[in-house]
Amino acid sequence: MSSAPRIAIVGAGPGGLVCARVLQNHRVPVTVFEREADLAARSQGGSLDIRADTGQVALRAAGLFEEFLALARPEGQEMRLMDRHATLLHHHLPRPDDVAAPEIDRGRLRALLLDSLTPGTVRWGRAARAAAPLPDGRARLELADGTVEDFDLVVGADGAWSRIRPAVSGARPAYGDIDFVEIHFADADERHPAIADLVGNGSLFANAGRRSLIAQRDGDGGIRVYAAFRSPLGWNADLDLGDSDAVRARLLDVYEGFDDSLLALLRLNEGPFVSRPLYVLPVPHTWERVPGITLLGDAAHLMPPVGVGANLAMLDGAELAQAVIAHPTIDAALNAYESVMLPRSADQAKAAADILAVLVPDTDSTEASFPDDLTGS
């Protein structure tokens, strides 16, 4: 590209930050607009497995792979699959040198990426309202405070409910018939040793019929649990989610027939239950080329949470930045990027839906069922 374009990335998640980092490594100016006030504005969520063929490729492109390895937890790749009776069906123990998909807390990964950027790159507390193409091939970004700025490229990296997506697509996320109720145990080894022993250093999956219990170790020693079950939207409309006793009673009814050691994941929670309904975009989600605007990550391909989303978002970000660097115009860069990203994301979304359909089956069978992606078979 003969002169450096002016680029805006909306959203300071892993995908947007990788994109900004790769651009800055090649001296391409970029500004990231983030609605949150700062990194500590909210909980950053649980642990991510960063995979060799996607997320790690992106971190290598960003020049951050070694720094990532220093923070990652290879032992977090441990996996235990159980039936509802807590019978261990499959147990994966990673080798100490196994870095196929080591775990890292989302907050640590985001901090690593933020620290790698030029100070001032991220404009905190600047929420986007909309974007629109301009007749000259550029794009106009409107912020929530009424500010308007024009850029050669606006990248929507702003997640499931993207404010940039409507500029390229009329698609909206739809409820996927599954709710994930989140439960957190802090300092599990000290406060809940039985649960810590049950889960181990990585992840635990136990399912039967339309219900699955998923537990995952965080880097700080806490354990995050998700009670995932098929349900209509609003199953908890008659409940106050702040009333833990009432929510617990409902969940124990849903998970009737599970072993007491597994039901402890529901009985012993310390904080409130958090409902996280599953939303997904249509598959495939595509759009006609819009000058000066594109999407990455969940904004482009929101799919079930089976360990794919963050990895694809980072790969999207790295490849978009590389396309901008390698091509003479933004339009040529977007054609190159979208021609790869859109079909890949459709394939991955289909695969993620298939995994979820086995992990939380739409049947009433009481037998455990797990996808080959989890068992390694």
TrEMBL record:
Q: Which residues bind FAD?
A: D49, R106, D298
Its quaternary organisation is: Monomer.
Name the EC number(s). Answer: 1.14.13.-
- Catalysed reaction, written as an equation: a tetracycline + NADPH + O2 + H(+) = an 11a-hydroxytetracycline + NADP(+) + H2O
The record's family statement is: Belongs to the aromatic-ring hydroxylase family. TetX subfamily.
Quote the protein name from its UniProt record.
Flavin-dependent monooxygenase
Q: Which purpose does this protein serve, as stated in its record?
A: An FAD-requiring monooxygenase active on some tetracycline antibiotic derivatives, which leads to their inactivation. Hydroxylates carbon 11a of tetracycline and some analogs.
GO molecular-function term, one example from the UniProt record: monooxygenase activity
Localization per record: Cytoplasm
Keyword list (alphabetical) reads: Cytoplasm, FAD, Flavoprotein, Monooxygenase, NADP, Nucleotide-binding, Oxidoreductase
Q: Which organism is it from?
A: Actinomadura namibiensis
Q: Which SUPFAM superfamilies match?
A: FAD/NAD(P)-binding domain
| Principal location | cytoplasm
The entry's cellular-component GO terms read: cytoplasm
UniProt xrefs under Pfam families: FAD_binding_3
